[in-house]
Design brief:
With 454 residues, this protein is of the alpha+beta class. It is built from 15 helices and 16 strands. The protein starts with a strand and ends in an 18-residue tail after the last strand.
Length: 454
């Protein structure tokens, strides 16, 4: 005897007891399941996959992880298509909910913010319909295709959507198409944080001068600082500094906040926040005796800003700072009034031919050349500035590697460890470094470069 169960309109048969007619020795169920519903087919497939996990080899586990993540992203694409369909049919209005976001939140027990996000994303990558009912392409077709193919996830979608919304109204349709294609092309190879940094750079490329200020608008403040007395006699403070002065403060604080082991083999017991507070105290002390300013590789704290000479002369355009923020050419001109400008001569293929002679040792000159070439950590997607990087020998010095531009690359501490311990390869070219991922990350080992340094 068989009993039929159903859930959400999906039916299947389950034999509980009894013996029915047999065919070739097999017991035939009285109600044969007919798997025509795609949701049930996917659910059954996932259950079979779950049951197969213990018997998988290490390589198969890695392959399944990639495959299931891709399926998860494809499922999210279908979800957004369904949300777009709900919107097109005005199901929220017909059921008295007022908005699709509110209906979605109640249906799926989502937060209001998450429901609004899904509706907003569905409007950009979901299938649209004309008044005649004809299907229209998504507003962000490249992004929609990448999500449907499982190449990008919801976090990538959020960053691309926000970047596209932030593009200036003066941008041409061709510029918008390029921006979406560029971000979507890089997204499968970058984590969301790195993609966000690339998106910020794209926005600067499209509008290097930023929004035009109003003629009667007061000058923008350089920052804000609020001080308050604490009950224990200390001072509390909070505030912010703008893009012109903030990077300079970070450079000083982070230089002085590096861990300082109590002795060999004993790590610094202070946390990051405590070290940064101690660094601020030290900065205040240095302000009272500027001749004791700390040095790095023989130089006092400095920021590296790379820009075309014509940009500096004309005062039009923007340039990137160490930390990935951008300054207008006008702001840089003001800095150049008091700064030491170190020229770097580049060849036709941006090859380094000569480094300015404001140097004392060969390592300092090589480091300066690395800063110009790599502009910070060269690992794909990393935005760490040169001050937080060390020169890594591609071929270790002990193994006969040279201390030269052709054998060195700037890496932050984290990616230095990654390269040493996880099987990444490095190729040095005239004007950039390429990184070859291990097979566990990319079986094809396709070389990558850092789009933030391109």
């Amino acid at each position: 005897m068989a009993t039929i169960f159903s859930s959400g309109g999906i039916g299947w048969a389950r034999k509980l007891s009894g013996v029915g007619p047999t065919i070739g020795g097999m017991t035939a169920l009285l109600a044969e399941p007919l798997q025509t519903d795609p949701v049930q087919l996917v659910s059954d497939g996932l259950q079979r996959l779950r049951e197969s996990v213990p018997g998988l080899s290490d390589t198969e586990v890695q392959e399944r992880v990639r495959a299931v993540e891709s399926l998860s992203r494809q499922a999210h694409s279908v979800m957004l298509d369904l949300v777009a369909e709900m919107q097109a049919r005005n199901l929220a209005g017909h059921t008295g909910f007022g908005s699709t976001a509110r209906l979605l939140a109640d249906m799926l027990s989502l937060s209001k913010a998450e429901a609004r996000t899904r509706v907003g994303h569905a409007e950009q990558v979901g299938t649209r319909r004309a008044l005649t009912g004809e299907a229209l392409p998504a507003r962000l077709p490249e992004t929609a295709a990448a999500l449907a193919a499982g190449e990008i996830g919801p976090a990538h979608l959020r960053i691309i959507n926000e970047a596209m919304a932030a593009i200036s109204d003066t941008a041409t349709p061709a510029d918008r198409e390029w921006a979406e294609a560029h971000l979507t092309g890089w997204a499968p190879r970058l984590d969301p944080a790195a993609l966000g940094r690339l998106a910020a750079r794209v926005l600067v490329w499209l509008d290097p001068d930023g929004p035009e200020p109003a003629t009667e608008e007061a000058p923008a403040p350089s920052g804000a600082l609020r001080l308050r007395d604490r009950r224990n006699g200390g001072v509390g403070f909070e505030g912010w500094l703008g893009s012109e002065h903030g990077p300079a403060l970070r450079e000083l604080i982070e230089r002085l906040a590096a861990p300082r082991p109590a002795s060999e083999g004993i790590p610094d017991p202070r946390g990051v926040e405590e070290r940064q507070a101690d660094a601020l105290v030290e900065v205040c002390g240095l302000a009272r005796g500027a001749e004791h300013t700390p040095s790095s590789a023989g130089e006092p704290p400095h920021l590296t800003i790379t820009l075309d000479l014509n940009t500096l002369i004309d005062g039009i355009g923007a340039a990137a700072c160490d930390y990935g923020s951008y300054l207008s050419a006008g702001e840089i001109r003001r800095w150049a009034c008091e700064a030491k400008v170190i020229p770097v001569v580049l060849g036709g293929r941006s090859e380094l031919l000569d480094v300015g002679r404001a140097m004392r040792t060969v390592p300092l000159g090589i480091r300066r050349a690395l800063v110009v070439r790599d502009r910070g950590c060269a690992f794909p997607g990393c935005g760490r500035p040169p001050s937080q990087c060390t020169a890594h020998h591609v071929i270790h010095w002990i193994d006969g590697g040279e201390t030269s531009l052709q054998n060195c690359v700037l890496l932050c501490e984290h990616h230095h460890r990654v390269v040493h311990h996880t099987g990444w390869g490095i190729r040095i070219h005239a004007d950039h470094a390429e990184f070859v991922p291990p097979t566990v990350i990319d079986p094809q080992r396709t070389p990558l470069r850092n789009p933030l340094r391109c």
